[in-house]
Design a protein that fits this description.
- With about 325 residues, the chain is an alpha+beta fold.
- The chain has a single domain, classed as Deoxyribonuclease I, Chain A, CATH 3.60.10.10.
- Helices cover about 25% and strands about 25% of the residues.
- β5 and β6 form a beta hairpin.
């Protein structure tokens, strides 16, 4: 069942473990023993460590691994109708089931979409029949739908939904999502943000100014979320290669899933540098990076599907 907007945006206050607190019954027994002069003649039987009954009891001893994807699905506006400009691709009604198949084939748990038109959103939700949920989905504007984050409902649940206004084509500000997610089996938390920055194309005026503004806002958000002590993953089509990597990894405590330097002003870009990215907090373990261009992917979109595994630790940070 889809939660309401109010429920999606409600903040969750972490519950402290309570096993260390004496219970009322324990206090009563201790007081009775004191008043009656009861002397304990032997050690109490060892009952073992206390059982933690708060959500922290669900914390796994090893970091759960989540497979993340950044997936520009090629918007329906490019392939459907009389104004389509990518006619070599099938319509979105054919490509959306293929999108689901690609996610399933790769065991993806969380995906940041770009160009997900409303018709593609509606078909995706219909095809997956509750196995996936997403935000913003259809809850905000059509433009906001394009950059939705989706997750497998069997593994992840939404704790907090937020958007940040990011500069898009010609300076238009579009709400783009950053979500606080909880891994159901372990209780561990993860921020996930997803962006799409404007491209400079022959059909539009140069977009460097607006792309730079977007990049600066995304770096500022990464620094702000770092202060929560909860790890962050960023997905997106940044329409920028080395310069985006160098800015994100030198001005925020982030690293790219495909390698390269981080935490230094002397930037070394990854060997396989593309405009589609997955970044993670600098202390995260990111591995199994892949820019996938299988025949199915090539029939579905004009971008590679970017994949990476992320080991989600307890809340921590290095600085």
């Amino acid at each position: 069942m889809r939660t309401s907007v109010a429920a999606r945006t409600a903040r969750v206050v972490p519950t402290r473990p309570t096993w260390w607190l004496p219970t009322v019954g324990t206090l009563v027994l201790a007081l009775a023993a004191l008043l009656t002069g009861l002397v304990l003649t032997g050690p109490a039987p060892d009952s073992g460590p206390p059982t933690v009954t708060t959500p922290f009891s669900r914390m796994a001893s090893t970091a759960p691994v989540v497979r993340v994807a950044s997936f520009n699905v090629l918007g329906a506006n490019h392939t459907d109708g009389p104004r389509a400009n990518k006619r070599s691709f099938a319509s979105s009604t054919v490509r959306t089931p293929a999108t689901v198949k690609i996610l399933d084939n790769n065991g993806v748990d969380i995906v940041g979409f770009q160009e997900l038109n409303r018709v593609q959103h509606d078909q995706f939700m219909g095809v997956t029949k509750g196995a996936w949920d997403m935000y913003p989905g259809d809850e905000l504007t059509n433009y906001a739908t394009h950059n939705s984050i989706a997750w497998r409902t069997s593994k992840w649940e939404l704790v907090e939904a937020n958007t940040v206004p990011i500069t898009y084509f010609d300076g238009v500000r579009v709400p783009m999502p950053y979500l606080l997610m909880r891994h159901k089996a372990s209780g561990r938390l993860l921020w996930v943000a997803n962006f799409h920055n404007p491209a400079s194309t022959r059909h539009r005026a140069p977009q460097l100014k607006w792309r730079t503004m977007a990049k600066n806002d995304e770096i500022a958000l990464a620094n702000r979320l770092h202060e929560t002590n909860i790890p962050l993953v960023i997905t997106g089509d940044m329409n920028e290669k080395e310069t985006y990597h160098c800015a994100m990894t030198s001005r925020a405590p982030m690293k790219a899933a495909n390698g390269g330097s981080f935490g230094t002003t002397r930037c070394v870009a990854p060997r396989d540098t593309r405009i589609d990215w997955i970044f993670g907090s600098s202390y995260l373990r990111l591995f199994n990076y892949l820019a996938q261009r299988t025949p199915l992917v090539q029939r579905t979109t004009d971008h590679p599907v970017i994949l990476a595994d992320v080991a989600v630790p307890l809340r921590q940070r290095t600085r």
